[in-house]
Prior knowledge:
Elements: E1 4-7, E2 10-14, E3 21-26, E4 30-33, H1 39-52, E5 56-60, E6 81-83, H2 85-105, H3 112-117, E7 122-123, E8 146-150, E9 157-162, E10 167-169, H4 188-204, E11 207-209, H5 219-235, H6 248-259
Parallel strand pairs: 4-5, 5-6, 6-7, 10-11
Antiparallel strand pairs: 1-2, 2-3, 3-4, 8-9, 9-10
Helix pairs in contact: 4-5
Amino acid sequence: MTFTAVADQVLVRTSRRMRTTTTLALGPGGILVDPAWEQDELDGIADDLDGLGVRVTAGFSTHAHYDHLLWHPRFGGATPRWASSAAVAVVAAQRDALLDDLAADSAGSHDGAVRALFGRVTAMPDDDGRPGTRIPGPDGALPPHEVVTHDAHAPGHSALWLPGPGVLVAGDMLSDTEIPLPFDPDDLEAYLAGLDRLEPYVRAASVLVPGHGTPSYAPMTRLDADRRYLDAVLSGRAPDDPRLRDPGMADAHARVLRIAGR
């Protein structure tokens, strides 16, 4: 698997693990979002970047789950990597546990250099006490963008909006392979609020890139699917959702039902 263009100056690569996406947004420099996730795949991303002649100016992690915190020294060991302040706080408190989870789920495949760079993210500057909306970088080096932060799925979860090509990199939201996945028992309201936060960007987008699954050229269908699923759960109806046919979603659905008190 190599990078594939989904829009002008936006490339996506899909891992064999859970169809996890890596997104590269190009300007004079590049933003590399959520590179994932096995050692050979990270090596392959580095080979692709070399082949494209791309210099990564900034890394970005959409949230503080271990499959979204990886990095490779060939991406630039000193390249600044950013996340929301809430996500960075989670990594600071839980980095060792996240590394343990990564090792358990990846059969210890990552080498020492990758493990040393794991989770080394810096908080974006806040905007007057609100989550920051810009990834810091040299003037003109990064493509025009906006970071959209909410608390659905994980504290400080962020999407990356690229207004030029009309691409929304949504993190672990709006997937065609995963149902909505709240992060704790109090999160259903936060999840619905997160969908509301994303809606104007989804409506404006030509392309949606989920953290797991397939990019969509009909972004509102993904938002509608997540809302239909949650509406069914909250009203006590059985969701008619094709994502539930994936055996991996059975346990996730049971957990959402428990959160909803069903």
